[in-house]
Write a structure and sequence with these properties.
The structure is a homodimer.
Chain A: E1 12-13, E2 22-24, E3 28-31, E4 50-55, E5 71-77, E6 85-88, E7 97-98, E8 111-122, E9 125-129, E10 137-144, H1 147-150, H2 158-163
Antiparallel strand pairs in A: 1-6, 3-4, 3-10, 4-9, 5-8, 5-10, 6-7, 8-9
Chain lengths: ~160, ~160
């Protein structure tokens, strides 16, 4: 495993279960300008690069009505991440944290989530702003973003706030 | 398949791929008051019931630092949903829509997402408000909710707005 995606000093792992419980289909690919992890923005609001989401033909009819949404939630698969790390030390923080208190791609199910601004849909290709993942990342899902249930402006991540 | 979770008139299906591309671990269970789909709230803000998220012992160390978060994103697996529907007719709207324009559990990868208020963590059990899923739903992930990247109060779902 490349060092980029390995287990670092101060990190704690657990034994993975002997088998998985459910299967995922990759339903498309995300195209971004970033070919290596070190080039990716640290979070999705750091870049205003226009990225594209290419949905496979099989699912294309499912895009109906989506163009009326200003923002979408994209779920994608961080396929190069270790899955057995429960305590980790993100390089840019340098402090050990629990996996579920972080948005790190290293987690038991490496499903990443980004809220992206939807610019347009042409055929089965979405143009969006607000992604931070590697080029060719496998797509898992596209959902409409509902401010009524998904937006919590007052939410606080205490450990992150205290860091400032 | 129970009628609750089947394919309805006006719905359009696609052929599923011959195999899945990645595997998921169920990392815990969500406990809610709702035993049947008809009892579930229509969306996660409709109920203020306190639900619990029971993480398996294997992953428990990963909860470190999470208690400092006011809100969490929960990903869970809607294991009774058909995965081949691309155009569907939600009962409470009665209009055909594309799967990716809906938050319906019927989708190629039935991963549901809820933003929940975190009340407390005791051992490996989280108490939260803001879920709408069936009791015993398999848990896939817990993430901290960052208002800076996850909250978009001005987001619009056009088809839903016009419905009013």
């Amino acid at each position: 495993m490349a060092k980029d995606f390995g287990v670092w000093e101060g990190e704690v792992t657990t034994e993975l279960p002997g088998q998985t419980d459910a299967g995922l289909y990759f339903i498309g690919r995300i195209r971004t300008p970033w070919k290596e992890r070190k080039d990716c923005p640290k979070n999705a609001r750091e870049s205003d690069a226009v990225c594209t989401v290419e949905l496979d033909e099989r699912w294309a009819a499912g895009l109906q009505d989506l163009a009326s949404c200003s923002h979408v939630i994209l779920l994608y698969w961080m396929d190069r991440s270790p899955r057995n790390i429960v305590l980790q030390v993100p390089a840019h923080y340098g402090v050990q944290r629990g996996t579920f208190a972080l948005r790190s791609p290293a987690r038991p199910n490496p499903i990443a989530l980004s809220v992206a601004k939807l610019l347009r849909i042409e055929g089965r290709v979405l143009s969006v702003v607000g992604l931070d993942c590697l080029d060719e990342t496998p797509l898992l899902d596209i959902k409409p973003y509902f401010a009524s249930t998904d937006s919590v402006p007052e939410a606080v991540v205490g450990w992150h706030q205290r860091r400032d």
